[in-house]
Amino acid sequence: MRVVIQRVSEASVTIDNIIKGAIGTGYMILLGIRAEDTLEDIDWLTSKICGLRVFSDSEGLMNESITDQHGDVLLISQFTLYASTKKGNRPSFINAAKPDIAIPLYEEFVNMLSQKLGKAVKTGEFGADMKVSLVNDGPVTITIDSKNRE
């Protein structure tokens, strides 16, 4: 699994001109899933997200986590995170999990992250054409891959 985490002051996702999810301070997370991903990847990655210290403390240092800040999360499925651009100019998405594998893993990711945060995670809609808006705070953008733990 691969995520792109952006610390935001606000973010939203719109589908068919209707806002599906919106948050204030927190993370807007893009999630890419591969067929090889497991529940262990979800557990490790959701723990890492909850513990990531990229919010400012009272002294202005990045010392607090999203749980310390009681921040919100907007999670968007993003198969293009596994784009291969090695050959030609048209990306290949062969490394991204097909929907029959990706959807259950995506749903479990949402559930596990919600449990660890102690609040609901806002989402887009898997496979939909979505318009994502955000105000990146910092800017702070972090990428994490569950297969790159060292």
UniProtKB/TrEMBL annotation:
It comes from the Bacteria. Homodimer. HAMAP family: Deacylase_Dtd (MF_00518). Its main location: cytoplasm. A Gly-cisPro motif from one monomer fits into the active site of the other monomer to allow specific chiral rejection of L-amino acids. It is found in: Cytoplasm. The lineage of its organism: Bacteria, Pseudomonadati, Bacteroidota, Flavobacteriia, Flavobacteriales. InterPro entries: Daa-tRNA_deacyls_DTD, DTD-like_sf. The gene is dtd. Belongs to the DTD family. One of its GO terms (biological process) is D-amino acid catabolic process. This is D-aminoacyl-tRNA deacylase.
